[in-house]
Design goal:
214 residues; alpha+beta; seven-stranded antiparallel β-sheet
Length: 214
């Protein structure tokens, strides 16, 4: 909105308030305020109409807001822990299209086909330490200790504790016939993360069993 339109809108609101006050006075018995109410009402309406965005611009704004809302609702928001060629801690979004998961972060888009994935799960930090290989557990420990808390160990060491449960979104997949992992900390839309994990188990889990020769 241009400065002129902003000024016009501000004046329109001012005259609108003045119109409301004048109408209250008229209803209270002050008939002399009627001309002022009519005049200010007309001026307010004209200024507000002039300050409105063109119909095409308003429609474009509505479409953009709807697109952003749809994108937010259809993606999981997370920080990368390990497994992608991006810096640890990168803000990422995780989406799903037919037969493929899509990871986006720092202007990079990475696609992982479902036929390469062995498992998709949402786990707490305790569950990860119990259920996953040491490399993933170590990556999460590093993230919790240095990436998440930003802890600086000075002369006196203090124990850092938290009551917040951290949820991890973990993809187990085949990378050149070797089992590998992609791990994220979920920061938004955990409901969708759980739904995607359930969807994968129902639609792909039974067909993606693998055998790896050691």
């Amino acid at each position: 909105m241009s400065i002129a339109k902003k000024i016009a809108r501000g004046l329109g609101i001012f005259f609108g308030v003045f119109t409301l006050v004048s109408l209250i006075l008229v209803l209270s018995g002050d008939k002399d305020s009627m001309p002022a109410a009519i005049f200010c009402g007309i001026i307010s309406a004209v200024l507000i109409l002039v300050s409105r965005k063109p119909a095409a611009e308003r429609a474009a704004i509505r479409e953009e807001k709807a697109r952003i809302k749809e994108y937010r609702e259809s993606h999981v928001w997370a920080n990368l822990v390990c497994g992608l060629p991006l810096a640890d801690g990168t803000n990422c979004t995780i989406g799903f299209e037919p037969d493929v998961f899509i990871f986006e972060g720092s202007g990079t888009t990475i696609r992982l086909a479902c036929d390469k994935i062995i498992n998709v799960s949402v786990r707490t930090d305790t569950e990860v330490q119990t259920d996953y290989v040491p490399s993933v557990g170590q990556a999460i420990w590093n993230y919790e200790t240095f990436g998440k808390t930003g802890a600086l160990w000075l002369n006196d060491t203090k124990e850092i504790t938290t009551t917040t449960t951290t949820r991890y979104f973990i993809f187990t997949y085949l990378n050149d016939d070797q089992i590998d992992y992609i791990c994220f900390v979920i920061t938004g839309n955990i409901r969708l993360a759980n739904a995607l994990a359930d969807m994968f188990e129902q639609n792909y889990g039974s067909t993606n069993e693998v055998t790896v020769d050691l």
